[in-house]
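Good morning C.,

I know you're traveling, so I'll keep this short. The sequence:
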Amino acid sequence: MATAKILLAALVLALVMSLSALPSSHPVVAAPDEVNKWSQVKMPIGGEADNWVLASGSDVRQLTMAPDGTLYAYVVSASGTSSTLFKSQDEGQSWSDTGKVKDAIVAIATAPDDAKIIYYATISQLYKSVDAGNTFTLFPPKPGGAGSNNITITSITITRNDNTYLVAVGTRDTDSSQYGGVYILDESQPLWGWSSTNISNYDVLRVAFSPNFARDGQLVAVVTNEIDTMVTIKVGDADWGQNFSDATIHSVVSQSASIAFPANYGATRDTFTLFVGINSSSNNGDAYIIYSRAMPESSIVADLNIGFNYGYNQLGVAWLAVSGNTTGATLLAGAAGSAQIYVSTDSGVNWTRSRKAPSGQSRTEVLMAPDFTSSRRAYVATSGTESALSLTADGGISWNQVSLIDTTLSAIVGLAPSPNYAQDNTLFLLTFDSGHIEHSLWRSRNSGVKWDRVLTSSTASADSINSVQLPRQYGNGHQVVFLAGTKGSNSVIWKSSDNGQTFTRRDAPFLFDIWTVANDDSLFVGGYDGGHGLVYSTTNGGFSYATGVVAGSQALQSIAISPNYEHDKTILIGNTSGWVYWSSDNGTSFRPLPPDTTSSPLIGLISVTFDPDFSRNNTVYAASNNASNGIYRYIINKSTSWVRIDGTLPVGGIVSQIRVATDGTLYAANSKANGGMERSLAPTYPLGVTFETVTGGLDDGVTLSGLWLSGNQMWSVDSHNTRLMTYTDSLTSPVTLTAPSNTAPGIATGNIILDWKSLRGATQYQWQLDYDTDFSTVPSGFEGNTEGSSARLPALETATTYYWRVRATKPVLS
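The tokens, ready to paste straight into the viewer:
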């Protein structure tokens, strides 16, 4: 037992038999609680069971929003389903397939005034739902011959017309010198049928009713004659281009297009200004502003050159979205050939691209929230490897993946819990997709209930990201996150000052193996040059490094800074060959422990850590990963050798990581199968340290890898099942004894009841009674176990002082 954590009380029994006996007490049994046993942290798992947060193998296209905010998307090739039409009613956080649709979808549209009405088109058919996508009916098929002779539907648009809806469809013919058209269906007609609008010899790439159709009667189309691209307008029953002259984009043969109407479209009678995004062959094209003039004036086209600042004379645009009026509008342009977003806040005069782009490879389709001006929220759907639905809440500066993410969690690489986890519930998780050879950084701010992916190795332009750490100052206004990885033959540090929203990359001039964060700007990293272990420091977030300081002649394995580092500047290093080094001068020099040793005092890969009371007791710990070699303690300036303290470590145990909580409890992950975690309440106790093995809640065969700590909550990786496990230790405090009170006199000799406060999560207690305080020889009948928070004593002697103590014994010791 860890004597330091057991409270004692004395009671004096006197011959005062007239005193009332203590009242009888009913045992209080602890309620079940998710503490003191391992439990699984919820992680993205993919598929329908997880509401399609992950959708391996998928692409996301045709993102559309209904008037009530419901999102619809065409999801291509998601693993585990043949459904293709999905919807989300929580801003894209979760999805479900709808309507049992399995078609290849080329367009989706919703009614402007009724969230229950949705349409989707294949290359030849149009379907309508009046119940929010639960069921669909087929419209008259094959408008303009779509589905035959290489004619396909390219887009659809819907508008309200009196008491019914008008539906317009654009088509194209992929044969040379053969063309598609625009066809309209009036749903109020008794005999439905498609009517040609006689748009002449054009392939139609995009068609859209004016947002003010009831007033201006406009239908707008982006078309090509296989030489140029034009924007043309039809007003009511007039011919195309009759009222407003066509705007021509010369020598651009578009493959796809989008139309974006500013909020004040049609504010003047004779001039209509809109924006279009064009993608031509080889992902060329651009965004354009169109000044449409009433005939006979000529309409004007201005190329907005979204990629000019980044070396692109032309850059294909998969989708263009606008918020605000013509002057001062915010534009988001999604690239056709990459997953980049280009942003303009001045109607296209100046452009910047996102600091942190969405993930994916191509076909970046963007959709602004209706309240974008105030919320700065927008969505992006992408295609290709690591594609997803991404979300921005800062106007397009940074994008996080929230769902339909084309990735798998093949392995858990690292974790960083917030130092203030008990208050903010924040976790950063690093995973690896072995299929795509990609790393992903995830952030949860609700203990894993919901995860957002905030970075991938592809968006970070890295070969790998292998570690994430938070400064001790994280929280309370500090939102710094550090990552470490590789690019080529060197290591790389990424720093975020906004909780992972954006990162700044710093390339190190060397390859390092270990690192630790001292504060928001200072790091220590350790590498090996072939002859020496070297420790480098930076005080500017990795922008520059001091000259490496020698720490032994072998590669380095672990590094830790003192709990009171800001004052004592002490650093501890463990290497790969049984050595431990320390520095008390902020890394200016390193000395071995013990200081006079000439051979390695330990063996194997060494993990190191400090006792939380190091500033007073100078105690440090080390652990070897060699089987059965365990955990050691050393007192600087006092010990002459490392003392092994884990005499109860199971045979063959492999200690891969050690951590010490702020209350002094030591934890060690045993990476042997079924090894679980080792736990000691008082690792500094000089007369023998007690360890116990904790495996409750773990499946048979589980191997724990890594150990992370915040307060008295631990996390480790079940590497056998690729699970993140957590353990909350609620039994590190002693039991509070309540009655009889300490040194209570005049207690009757019989019917005495010991009472104590129950501990959260304790299921069994051991009580002991003795004549002295060392409890070395507890008399028969003077100890017992109970599931409650009280115990009845046997008859006691008069005029005698007794000492009693209680500790929890199950599920672990207190």
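Safe travels,
E.
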